[in-house]
Amino acid sequence: KAGVTQTPRYLIKTRGQQVTLSCSPISGHRSVSWYQQTPGQGLQFLFEYFSETQRNKGNFPGRFSGRQFSNSRSEMNVSTLELGDSALYLCASSLYPLDTQYFGPGTRLTVL
Amino acid sequence: EDQVTQSPEALRLQEGESSSLNCSYTVSGLRGLFWYRQDPGKGPEFLFTLYSAGEEKEKERLKATLTKKESFLHITAPKPEDSATYLCAVRLIQGAQKLVFGQGTRLTINP
Q1: What would the mean pLDDT of A32-36 be, rounded to a whole number?
Q2: Average pLDDT score over residue span B43-48
Q3: In Å, how far from its chain's centre is CA B88?
Q4: What is the pLDDT of residue A62?
Q5: N or C end of chain A, less CB within 10 A?
Q6: Do B46 and A57 touch (CB under 8 A)?
């Protein structure tokens, strides 16, 4: 069974731009969560989607948003990029919200 | 505030030298403790889930245990391929159903 896939794997943007990251969960998984990983803060929860509905949101500004489609694929968007948004963005999927989460390889975002 | 603390931050061992990694947590409610392994440039790889004090799980050279306030990841006779960052995470009962991660332990096994 294929794992979680994320596209693109690498991205370079400049301050003020916006970016959209994509995540395809493991086949059959309906829950998708997003995390931001930085050397200073470690892994931090962004939001969780299940059945196209956002169930929970972490402590991030409104510039960070996401959505989930009917096929469980998910996207996250970051508007008005700041230098501090440079990070590895990880997507994780699970069958249901309280099941074990399996992570994708991440998208490395660099903001210049 | 809910917190997960891992120690040590970094650990260097010789091949075959057994040791333990610690994950302590102060949370108002626990709905599972998870161990992940992360290699450089990759996403975390799931290892174990523990739900209640006294529970133990094993996989090859790894064994995870859980008490009311901490978890240990025991590594027996490690090999160089066990080198990675080991992450501990807890799922909370109250509030968001999210994983709260520790900062990780960077483990290096020298041949």
Answers
A1: 96
A2: 96
A3: 4
A4: 95
A5: N
A6: no
Please give the C-alpha separations between residue B50 and each of B47, B65, B98, in angstroms, as whole numbers: 10, 8, 16
Q: What is the pLDDT of residues A47-58, one digit of tens each?
A: 999 999 998 888
Cα A2 from Cα A34, distance rounded (Å) = 19
The residue behind tokens 């508007």 is A79
Cβ B43–A57 below 8 Å, yes or no? Answer: no
Give, as one character, the DSSP assignment of residue B105.
Answer: E
Residues 6 or more apart whose CB falls under 8 angstroms from that of A63 comprise A78, A79, A80
Distance CA A48, CA A50 (A): 7
Euclidean distance between CA atoms A63 and A56, whole angstroms: 16
Q: Is the pLDDT of residue B11 over 70?
A: yes
Q: Which residue has the higher pLDDT, B12 or B92?
A: B12
- CA-based nearest residue to A62, from A110, A9, A18, A32: A18
Q: Report chain A residues whose CB lies below 8 A from the CB of B97.
A: 48, 55-56, 97-98
Confirm if B71 and B16 have CB atoms less than 8 A apart.
no
As a whole number, mean pLDDT of residues A20-32 equals 96
Q: How far is B101 from chain A (nearest CA, A)?
A: 6
Q: With pLDDT > 90 as the criterion, what percentage of chain B qualifies?
A: 77
Residue B97 has pLDDT above 70, yes or no: no
